[in-house]
Amino acid sequence: MDTRLTNPAVEPKQFYNKEGRKRGHAxxxxxxxxxxxxxxxxxxxxxxxxxxxxxxxxxxxxLGDRSSCGSNPYPTAEKFGFNVKLMHLGQKFVDxxxxxxxxYGAHMNPCVDCRILMLTEAKNFMELVSADFIITGEVLGQxxxxxxxxxxxxxxxxxxxxxxxxxxxxxKVLAPTAPELSGMVDRExxxxxxxxxxxxxxxxxxEFGLEDYPNPASGCLLTDExxxxxxxxxxxxxxxxxFDDLNLLRAGRHFRLDAATKVIVGRNEDDNKRIMAYRQPHxxxxxxVDVSSPVTLLVGPATQDNILKAAMITARYTSARNRxxxxxxxxxxxxxxxxxxxxxxDADLEPVAIR
Length: 355
Ligand code: SF4
Hints:
Layout lengths: L12 H4 L7 E6 L4 H11 L3 E9 L17 H7 L2 E6 L1 H9 L12 H18 L4 E3 L13 H11 L5 E2 L11 H4 L17 H10 L16 H13 L5 H6 L4 E6 L2 E5 L3 H10 L5 E5 L7 E4 L4 H13 L9 E7 L2 E7 L4 H4 L3 E2 L1
Parallel strand pairs: 1-2, 1-4, 2-3, 4-5
Antiparallel strand pairs: 6-7, 6-12, 7-9, 8-9, 8-10, 10-11
Helix pairs in contact: 2-8, 5-6
The site of iron/sulfur cluster has 12 residues, from helix 5.
């Protein structure tokens, strides 16, 4: 007797003809945060194989950040048994941030374009590995700009993924997707969560034994007001943004002297190190002499006026800020140039500070 027809243990084969108990293969957009982890677990619970994609960008979504868009995906993947692939979106992401087709959210966050880009990459990967559908940890109504029904539908239309993106946390309040309609995924075992509350997610995390997850504050720098102001200024004054330019936005106080000139001053040791690491050959380095001083970059033409202004700003953040004058040295070729300036005061900084 052929038990495959009656034994539920082998029933998945009727969908995929794959070995073992897998009923299907989902590609997950996986930040490592709570919601995307739960979306994966809800699939694993239904014997769906999951390959998770963790995207990285130059805007905070990298593994060095303990945040909802940049936490380390590996511990959860190892604990629960699914694969993770890292993908850096590099220039493609910089392009959508510079010119988003669907605009920005509250700050410089182009969330709709971002979702379109990530889902397009996931779609390409899904086709490459012959997976069946995509899942995300999106919750209807959780984020006002991107996680509302019309924006979710817009993203599906733009990516050509209608019916193939399952949001397990909100599935019951959304239209059924292809894997639900085919019976590959049991819709009844999915969730119907909406809004910003986290009660049900925390309950599910406990149920699954998911312990170490980051809090929901976004790690995306594009939602940060100060960072967004610096980025807006950079885009407005730079023809071709480099990755070093972007990395420098994450360090120090920034001042715009004129369209071609900017000054960046380290706020602490970490900033100083980062500034030195991302300094480019055409940047001029300033430091006060004989006093505790931040590292400063003058980005732009080293005219006498610019050097004096950059030196005054540097002096303002030294241990000698209350002295009438401070010596500041600027590295220029082999010989340092030394200027003596009075430290800038608030009235000097106000018109040039990018906050
Ligand atoms: S906050 Fe918006 S732009 Fe930033 S990673 Fe999330 S969806 Fe993308």
